[in-house]
Amino acid sequence: MGLTVRVKTSLDSGKGVKSIYDEVYGYIPVSEVELKVIETPTVQRLRRIKQLALAWYVYPGALHTRFSHSLGVMHVIGILVRKFIDEGYVRRDDYELLRIAGVLHDIGHTPFSHAIESYMTQAFRIRHEELTTYIIETDPYLNEVFSEYGINPKEVASVIRGNHKEPLYNMLLSSDLDADRIDYLLRDSLHTGVAYGMIDVDRILHTITVDKDGELAVPSKSIQAVENFYLARMHMYRAVYHHKTIAAFQVMMRTIYEMILSELGDYLEPFTTLPKILSSIRKGEFYLWDDSLIAGTLNLVLVRGLGNDVLRELIRLLLNRVGYKAVYDVVKLSQEPLSTDRDEVVKMLNDVVKDLSSYVGFKEYMTIPYIEELNLVDEDLCVKVLDKNTSVRITEYNSSIINTIPRFIGIIRLYVHPNIYDKAREVLLSKGII
Questions:
Q1: Does the pLDDT of residue 5 top 60, yes or no?
Q2: pTM for this structure?
Q3: Which among 173, 25, 21, 149 is positioned nearest to 96, based on CA atoms?
Q4: For the domain that residue 30 is a member of, what is the CATH number?
Q5: Is residue 49 part of a domain?
Q6: Closest CA relative to residue 73, chosen from 155, 181, 234
Q7: Contacts from 57-60 at CB under 8 Å and sequence distance 24+?
Q8: Is residue 108 part of a domain?
Q9: What is the pLDDT of residues 117-150, one digit of tens each?
Q10: In sequence order, what are the residues at sequence separation of 6 or more whose Cβ sits closer than 8 angstroms to the Cβ of residue 93?
Q11: Whole domain around residue 44: which residue ranges?
């Protein structure tokens, strides 16, 4: 079921009770219930979390937030759902359900996003998607709104998780060509100035439909716009999301965060352990865990001379934009996952670190292996192409260039503290690795 209480929505009149100006789409109409959700402290927190974390160290304009991205996803979902309602694929009463899922889909992101989330995943065995579900189901501010308007939080969460009983609903947020990806490519490209991410979103949104199997599809006449979408994502992964220098600052921030938790955890209470984080959500305190809290703690460590010399040195380097350096950097484009030779890669990096450990002045925090594998085209989730009476996945469509692009990007790096960069390079040269 969608909403059990009928409220006036922006679908009814084409207007909302309020309009919010967005730099990508212009004015976004917002309904009464959407406005109530947006105004909760839990959603307002996203104004204080940058969408691309430390990317602004490389692209100074990348200061946009997860809040604006979330509004954009809600807007794109609204466009798609209105179209699918007219075509008979979505129930009118589920319009608000899907828009609200859009605006809440990133609610579980941590401060500095991937820098801290990588630690959370390793230390607490929890991903931000799971945190999102927990917030939607237990946050007191959101649940007060849900209760007032008859919204089922579990159903909202199911759309975001991708296990709603209506498969099409899941595809709006969990497919290769979904509202999330459409918005972040446009928005991140705009703010970084990296033109690779610019896509023909109007063409995609105007022509996308649902095929006889209930899956997202585009007519063959629009295939160039979709191909450009896949190519744009591939280039943005390399130029922005896993940019060598940006990633260096991310791993540095993670190292600093772990040190603060270990030595000065009281300054980050109640966000130091998973039970405490979950408790903060239930108590309505989660909205305080934002970029400002972490950034303020870094300043406090230096101002008050807290922690040890290593921690303070790393913070000074980070604040002055002196990051770790990639002494080894290989990007592999392939049709096969990196996992086929991951063990060999890990052994090679560990051998280098072992050799460096005998170097005078070496400390464990000075080396950070970085291995990422990105799936560029998901064979199971990729969009389909309608051609005459057939509908096939774009990877199976003979005249599509998607057949020729790699399925995976493997990124293998060894980041080192700038003080040992020259020595690390010597070791790699001696082993014939570079």
A1: no
A2: 0.92
A3: 149
A4: 1.10.3210.10
A5: yes
A6: 181
A7: 57/245, 57/246, 57/249, 57/321, 57/323, 58/243, 58/245, 58/246, 59/191, 59/192, 59/193, 59/194, 59/240
A8: yes
A9: 999 999 999 989 999 999 999 999 999 999 999 9
A10: 1, 2, 3, 6
A11: 10-193
Total structural domains within the chain = 1
Q: Tell me whether residue 344 is in a domain.
A: no
Tens of pLDDT, residue by residue over 288-328, are 999 999 999 999 999 999 999 999 999 999 999 999 999 99
Strand partners, 40: none
Q: Is residue 97 assigned to a domain?
A: yes
**Cα atoms in the 13 Å half-sphere on the side-chain side of 75:** 25
Alpha-carbon distance values, 346 to 174, 254, 328, 340, 432 (Å):
31, 20, 13, 12, 16
